[in-house]
Every structure is written in structure tokens, then in C-alpha cells.
Amino acid sequence: MKRFDWRALARSTSGNVLPITAVSIIVLAGLIGGAVDIARAYMVKNQLQNACDAGVLAGRRAVTTNGFDSGAKRQADLYFNANFRMDGNTVSNTRFQTSSDETGNEVAGSASTRMSTAVMNLFGKNSIDLNAACMASMSVGNSDVMMVLDVTGSMGAPISKMRALQAAMKNFYDTVAAAKAGSNARVRFGFVPYSSSVNVGRLIYDLNPDYLVDSYTVNSRVAEYVERSFFGFKWKEFVGWTYQPVSDFDYATYKSFRPVTTLTGGTDRPANVTSTWAGCIEERETVPAASFSYSRLGKMTPGGAQDLDLDSAPDLSDDRTKWAPMWPEVAYSRAKLPQDTSGSKAGGPCPAPARLLSEMNKAQFDAVADSLVPTGSTYHDIGLIWGGRLISPDGIFSANVNERAANGGAVSRHIIFMTDGNMEPSTTTQSSYGIEALDRRVTGNGSSSQQVARHNSRYLAICEAIKAKGTHIWAVAFGLDLTKEVHRTALANLTTCADSGSVFKADDAQQLNEAFQDIAKEVGELRIRR
Predict the structure, then answer these.
(1) Which alpha helices (H) appear in 62-185, and where do they start and end?
(2) Rounded Cα gap, residues 100 and 109, in angstroms
(3) Which range of residues forms the domain containing residue 123?
(4) 233 with 336, same domain?
């Protein structure tokens, strides 16, 4: 038997296909398996990163004045888990951890997971560890924020409502200031506290004293005397008051914030009253129309209502286009026209002064919040008229509004409109529209039945005029009782007034604070950093 030649076989080039093919198959399997698992790892890593981003964004959005507390951390975890939903056979040992700085302005996150391999395990590689890092912070660009705040008497009943507003305002400032820290952004704040009037007199006077009238007719009273004589002695005896329009009070002095004395006080006998203007105004000429509307083309219908014109400066030759100081010390109402022998004090209250847009430190901002005192009736229209005027880039305060930011960037404009109730005008108390029962500037006939609807129409038209200028309106309804029809109407009007998705309903102090925090976060911008 012939012996097999192994050396010949080794030297032979024929018959090597099979082993080479076997080795090649193993190599190709490794390459293909590796590619499959790498592709899977890429997909899982993307989901891990997206979930990490979603988690820190949710956590940062949930930050309150308590910082990154357990509630905010819980929100971060919920959003991570909702966005990272991998099959348990695919991943294991998934972890998500978050942390934050002292202010809560930045929330950092880290995520990790272990992905089981589908093919590479045949070659001893059973899993791939994956990691992601993420950070969410809030920053703010150049922003102007005008707060139009209902400070009517109902805000003081209970007093905690006003305290809740003041606290929410201060926390709003803290949130925006934290977002601004470390940047060159400019943030300015302005304020229009309103009730039955607005305290804008100093702003008008400092702009141009001639924008205020020097003479004006106000419903007041005049002391009446009869001449008596006895054995050659003559004197005048006071016999009573005549309640009527009076046009000879010294408005030229009064508007300059200097004291003026009038013979309008006393009961049984006349007495001098010395008064100094607090700063509230009566509006310029209007039109007693049943309804108003504003066109995006820039037209208020019907025309002729000077009070609803946000931008035009007064014509210095026409008192109808000017504002008048509200003089509550001399204002009296009466039952009959044109005069009566009996009447009652009708002077309206004056809220805290309005303020132009300005940069503020915390102490300055807090001082404004603390100055708010509840007083007077609810006239939403007068508050929004002046909020719109003070933030309009085209009006008499445009030099302030258009003041260029040092960084040269664009400016976003916002109005935060907060109220705790429905429109509640009065026919017998002096407001920015005088004493409606006598002056009839809004109703045309002094009827209280028309008053609410007409003031509501005016304020909704003004809202459209403000939004047409690019200012975003945020509305906060505080403590509305929706079992009452008037409050349901109030909420519906707020929804119409505000920009889409920009109405917040707050039933208590905590929810009011949360509403202001949500607005602060919208004024700012949540950003992802990796």
C-alpha cells in the first residue's frame, strides 16, 4: 500500500477553497455582526441622549422658588423614563441622575445604560456600555415687561390676595434675573397699577406739561349766600350748596403738583380744602359708542375716540386731545341735571404711580411691588390703555421704549395683565371718565345697564391694538369663581385679550406664583447644552 504524501498535499494549491471559505465566513460574520450591533448602539445612544435632554428640560421647567427640589427632580425622572422606553431584553442597568446649581437655573443630567449585543456575543462581546450627558438652562434675551396690575379693592379682601401678588411679582423678578445672570441681555420692567383710574400724571407732566389742560369743567359744588343786614350792618349768610359743573378751579397750578385751596369743604358751613394732585388722570375725549373694534390695518372703529388712540400726542391748541388731572377733593355727584341742592362726595381713589420701562435691581423692583395698595373699582380698559401707551414703540413714550440696548440686539415686548375679577365700573364715583351719571362719556345717557358691556368692548379693542404692535399679552385670572356668570365672562374676555395659549387661571397664592413663574420661563428661553 502506497504511503500518503502529506508534504505534497501541503505544497499543492488545489483543494484550499473550503478552509479559506470557512475562515472568510467567520471573519465576515464578525464584521456584519459588529456593524449590526454598532448600528443598534447608535440608535440606543440617540434615544438615551434625547431622553436625557427631555429629562433636564422638564426638570428645569419645574424649578420654582424652592430651586431644584424633589418635585422638580421627579419631573425630570418622569420625562426621562417616558422618552427612554427600550425593551428590557435590549438594555439593562439604565440610570439617570440630575443635579443643579444653587439657583436652580441650570440642571445637569447624566444617563447610562448597557445594551446587550445581538451578534457580537458569539465572539465574547456580550454588551456595550453607553453614556450621555445633558444640561438645561434658562437664558433671556433683551426683554421689556410691562405689568398691568388690578389693584382694586377686591385685592384687599382678603388682604392675602395682595400679598400673594406681591410675592409672585418678586419671584418673577428672581427667575428672570437668574436667567439673565452672566449675559449681556437687557431686561426692563414697567408698571401700570390700575383701578378706576391710573396714576400717570407725573409721567405726562415730565414729558410735556402742556399735554395737561390748564382749565377743566368738573362736577363739584358752589357755596350759596344771601346778603343780610341789621341796623346798617351787612353780611353774607351761607344758605346751602348748589351741586353743579364748575370750570374755574385752578388746574394750571394743580397740575404742577403744587397745593391749591378751594372753598368746597365743610357741611354746615363752607370750609377751605387744600389739595395737591396725586397724579391720577381723567382721559381725553372719547365717543359713547356701543362697541369698538380694532383692525390689524391700524384702525379703531368707530373713530374719534382720543382715549383709545395709543400713539397720538395731544394737539396743544385743542383741550379735547389733552388729559386732565383727576381732582377728587372737589368732585361731587348729584341726582339732577344740570344742578341740584343736594349731592355727595364722589372723588375717586388713586392707585400707586405707573412707571416707565427701566432696568431695576431687586431692591427697586421689590419697592414697587410693596407700594401696591388695593383701592377703587375695576376698569380694565384704563389699565390696558396705559399699559399699551407705555410700551408702544410709536407713541409719546417711544424714546423710552425704543432706547437701544447696549448689546444691539432686538427686544421682545410683553404685557402681563393680572386681574382678580370682572369689569365693575361705577356711575356715581369719579373715574378716568369722570362721574358717568353726569358726564356720560361712555354710556351717552348715564345708564349703568350699558356700562359694563361698553367698557369690556373698549378693553378688548385695545388688546387687539396692543398685539398688532408685536407686544405679547399674557393674562392671569386670579381667584375667579366660575360658578358666577360674570366671572365666566371675565375669563372668556381675558382669553380673547391675550395671545393664544397665554392665559393662566390661579385659584390661590401658590397657583398665582406658578402662573408668574410659567410666564417668566416663557419670557426667557430654556436651552439645551451638551
Answers:
(1) 70-83, 160-180
(2) 9
(3) 15-139
(4) yes
Q: How far is CA 416 from CA 93, 146, 181, 439, 507, in A?
A: 46, 6, 22, 31, 17
Q: Is 286 left (phi over 0), alpha (psi -120 to 50) or beta?
A: beta
Q: How far is CA 288 from the centre of its chain?
A: 30
The per-residue pLDDT for range 115-147, each reduced to its tens digit, is 999 888 877 789 999 999 999 887 788 999 999
pLDDT reported for residue 529: 66
The DSSP annotation for 411-477 comes to -EEEEEEEESS--B--SSS-BTTB-HHHH-SSSSS--HHHHHHHHHHHHHHHHHHHHHTTPEEEEEE
**Is 10 inside any structural domain?**
no
386, HSE (Cβ side, Cα atoms, 13 Å): 33
User: What is the secondary structure of 215-255 as a DSSP string?
Assistant: ---EEEEEEEEEEEEETTEEEEEEEEEEEEEE--S-HHHHT
- List average pLDDT for each run of 10 residues in the chain, which is 530 residues long: 54 54 48 75 92 92 84 94 84 94 85 91 87 88 96 87 96 89 91 98 98 98 95 93 98 98 94 98 97 91 97 98 98 96 95 98 98 96 98 98 94 96 95 97 94 97 97 97 94 97 96 94 75
Total domains in the fold of the chain: 3
**Confidence (pLDDT) at 375:** 93
Which of 332, 349, 366 corresponds to the end of one domain?
349
**In this structure, is residue 8 part of a structural domain?**
no
Question: 244 and 107 in one domain?
Answer: no
**What single DSSP character describes residue 345?**
E
Asked if residues 132 and 108 have their Cβ atoms less than 8 Å apart, the reply is no
The CA distance from 225 to 260, in Å, is 23
- Per the listing, cell 365693575 goes with 424
Other beta carbons within 10 angstroms of residue 311's beta carbon come to 16
193 and 226 both lie in a single domain: no
- 357's CB contacts (< 8 A; 6+ apart) are 144, 146, 188, 189, 190, 390, 391, 400, 401
Domain assignment present for residue 4? The answer is: no
Residue 297: per-residue pLDDT: 82
Pair (107, 26) in one structural domain: yes
Indicate the pTM of the whole model: 0.82
Measured distance CA(153)–CA(429) in Å, rounded: 14
Question: What pLDDT sits at residue 124?
Answer: 77
Candidates 188, 191, 142, 141; CA nearest to 165 is: 191
With 0-12 / 13-18 / 19 or more C-beta atoms within 10 angstroms meaning exposed / middle / buried, residue 96 is buried
Give pLDDT tens digits for 56-89: 989 988 887 788 999 999 999 999 999 998 777 7
Cell numbers at 349, concatenated: 381713589
Position 210 in a domain: no
C-alpha cell at 181: 445672570
CATH number at residue 393: 3.40.50.410
